[in-house]
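Hi team, as promised in this morning's meeting, here are the two structures we talked about. I've kept the exact order from the run log so nobody has to guess. The first one is mostly here for context; it's the second one we should focus on when we meet again. Sequence first, then the predicted structure tokens.
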Amino acid sequence: MSSVDKQLEQLQAEIENELPSDITVSDVKYEGPELVVYTRHPKEFAQNGDLIRKLASKLRKRITVRPDPDVLSDPHKAEERIMDVIPEEAGVTDLDFHVDTGEVVIEAAKPGMVIGRHGSTLREITKEVGWTPEVVRTPPIESSTVSNVRNFLKQEREERRDILERVGRQIHREEMSKDEWVRITTLGCCREVGRASFVLSTPETRILIDCGDKPGAEDEVPYLHVPEALGAGANTIDAVVLTHAHLDHSALIPLLFKYGYDGPIYCTEPTRDLMGLLTLDYLDVAAKEGRTPPYESEMVREAIKHCIPLEYGDVTDIAPDVKLTFHNAGHILGSAVSHFHIGDGLYNVAFSGDIHYKDTRLFNGAVNDFPRVETLVLESTYGGRNDYQTDQEDSEQSLVDIINETHEKGGKVVIPAFAVGRSQEIMLVLEEAMRSGKIPSMPVHLDGMIWEATAIHTTYPEYLRDDLRDRIFHEDENPFLAEEFNHIDGGEDERQQVTDDGPAIILSTSGMVTGGPIMSWLRHLGSDPESTLVFVGYQAQGTLGRRIQTGWDEIPVSDPNDPGRSSTLALKMDVETVDGFSGHADRSGLMNFVKTMNPRPEKVLCVHGDERSVQDLSSSLYHDFNMRTFAPKNLETFRFK
């Protein structure tokens, strides 16, 4: 018998010892980080609401209780009784029964009403029918991504359970080494923006954090083939942690499966869905531009299948000697500061990912309160001495002024925007400005993936700023459904029609003008001196967006009918930059993030910024807070214990 089987046997005995005599346990299994308890008495479990909580506290495990398949009530009868229990105003749209696990997935417009106060309605459902309810939200805006991900995971349910059981046994295996050390190896995004990737190593465990591309430089990828990463074989990596879905952090996650990785990816639920959306688009753009994609779409599905979603604040075992906790990073939907607790109090490391420290219209500001942190790996995108962004209120006023001036001239405002995060932030600004009369009501055309990304945002309101979440679901005032917003889904014909019509605002991907529909808008409107191009997000070095921003007035554009042919376009539209809408903290935000950290770290690695930015930030943190700081290069390894 393996050590894991002995451990499960012992856990079952401990659980049975804690349970009342009328409740039996038929099996205990690990599924990922969770301990799953099978019982012939699910109703009795549900009648004692504190029982699972007490077991979880005593065993220090995340526990899920499932009924044995042979005690389940008939799904048709169960459906009737479930609908009697759930309030009608919850808006149930689907019930999906899974006999193999005894779970019923309930999709509803208002999941909170299905859950009930402190889970009371869920317990009532189990008491009535024996099935274990799982609740998901019906997207207020129909999302093909959310629908496809849910359907795919439903189809792959059996294989996914096998994956989770294998991962669970790996997490809870016996520790093999008595050595104690912690190392971080930098594989990308050091003294540069893009291709974020790190390896966190202990004698027991090797964890890959992020695996992205570099905007404007498709041939520059993380140093994955070094011995610390995939050089010794893909399955020497125990786990992958994805901080958020932007491509400079997620684009090459599916590539790991092409190389033979078969382990878990830990991320938030919206990060999983957005990664699917963005990586599939990444492949589509590569194909349209005549480049060979680095992996097939099947690898994206493999990545989604291996995702284990975690919620903010949940402390989760991901290896025998590592616990992971995600905290809100304030950057984009589902973005996470990733806190690793290593060993039995041995060491603590936090990776900021990308952060925004202050509240925005879309998100609450980044969390920086942890039980312990000895080392912080900190993004430095705007870490330079003069990288201060305009106050958000001033930024919004600047955008309003530009729109009004362009409208008076009869021109159109074109805003290159990242589909995820900045677009939704700008949508909220425009909706409020039109509603309050600060700008005239006019069509706001959303091109590229912006509408789909917006639909995903409304599927996960618990990740949005508190007051915005309340507007969407408690006051039935979803600002993303304002009548001015129009989803461009008619291709070039619709773009030509918009060009021929009157004043309008166009939000279009890609945010750094590296391809996508923004190139079409430049062809249509770039030579119009009455129109304005407004940059609202970071433009990385080497991108066409950065070149236009710094004065290029002749730009290469490809022929839409023959991507291999290009010509030069004289750019006559006004070009403006409005700071303050970035999803990144500026210089003061980064300094304040560290200054107010509780506790303050002993060491900081400044990464994800150009050379000047990381060195400026590293130097200032050292002088102001008397801490050890580093501005590492790629392929450096740091030992911390």
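And here is the second protein, the one for discussion:
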Amino acid sequence: MSQDQPHEFKNWVFGDVLRRQAERFGDRTWIRMVDGETLSFREADRAANQVGRFLHELGVSKGDAVAVMLPNSLEHCHAWSGIARIGAVHIAINTDYKGAFLSHVLTNSESSHIFIHGAYLPRLLELEAAFPNLRCVILVGCAASANAVESRFTFRSLDESTEYSDGDLRVPVSYRDAACVMYTSGTTGPSKGVIMPHAHVYLFGLGTVENMGLVESDRFYIVLPLFHANGMFMQLYATLITGAEAVLREKFSAGRWIHDVVDFDITITNSLGAVISFVLSQEPSPLDRRHRLRAIGVAPNLPELDDKLRERFGIRNVFGLYGMTEVNIPLYTQAGDVRPGSCGRVWGRYYELQIVDPETDLPVSAGDTGEIVVRPKLPFGFMTGYLNMPEKTVEAWRNFWFHTGDAAWMDGDGYVYFVDRIKDCIRRRGENISSFEIEKVIGAHPGVSEVAAVAVESDIAGAEDEVKVVVVPTGHLDVEELREYCVRQLPRFAVPRYVEYLDALPKTPTGKVRKTRLRELGITDGTFDLDAI
């Protein structure tokens, strides 16, 4: 188990890891915001105790669900650590969520408390009656403004936590206990909450350490959101495990990317294909080679992006990788590998992976395309199920393997190459999007009789998909009015780029929409590009 002793995974509990690193590194900076704020290991540990005591006073107990809807910030880290310190479960919420998307997460998770930034509060108040379990709102960024709000919620401020003792809290928490729930796209239903035990989230960070060579002297640049596993666990948690410094930006900026890398002496970062496309679209700069960035993790690792990163920025190691919230990151390329387009080889210390025929579940030959299936070698090194959706958990597991729904092929050396999604889901700029949830929202428009959402190819390298909706209107339906409706009702990443009107949707004899035919239809002369409106 790398540098760990056998069964060391029993110590893979976030609160305990933070406590140990605070004792080891003390006042050394752990997190540095690009605006100048810093947080030391010791300060983070003390804040965990204070926020933990604050939550306990508010009635939160071990195992309770506490939602977090915050931008990348030190406050986000305090919420995470305080929840973990008392053994509660962190419900991670995308800050773009609104309407039905937000209501589903809070209802499904049965969250009783939520940390939320004041900028997102109106979205919560609009839906107040939809989630009766939620009773306390902990505000960040606008404590005073809630005083005039008429609501059944109790409003408190995260600032109040500083009034509590920072003495050590010793709530017994196990590597088997749920640490976090993150929501991932559904296909024939709403998004599913992935229950992530402490051992599972630790392995996300350990994967970065072991496969990308993260060490104590590194500086990790984090621009991906902390409500996803990449930003929170693969990057921020990895820095905690090693004692490396994390440099955190609230939101990705293509124009500031190379400036930050140089100004903060960054040595390593993770990204997404779409993010790298936006970076590469910036004008070349003398700074492009005046940095110490030695490694970057990219998914998907498209050949054209891999080549350009090496050529333009001189980055030695471009790590391809593959994973899911459910299965961790079982595939990485290794330092020195130059295999553009590959997700890497299996991280065999902790995971098994095969490419199988999706009909028979039998392994396919090298070079043949099949479905990626994965299983862990360690107990609780994987998700433990979908929250309050046991039938979906059973559906994903078959013949003792988790079925990812992703198609790929493996070469003779064991390197895996992603091909496409088998399941009916849409992945757009790093977000898994449920076609069901888009259809539910747009289908509620009075001018829509039927609707189907499908993925079409994006014109941005690495962005993976764009969303197209095919609508059967009840009568005249103005495209611009439909776009404005979507902007009001859907998270930004789920607003469709393309719309096409048809008299009827193609269907099977049993009445199911033939989405394969709609995907094959693609962009036609009758398709409206909403970005151009």
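Starting points for discussion:
The chain has three domains: 12-27+35-173, 197-421, 426-532.
DSSP finds 14 helices and 28 strands in the chain.
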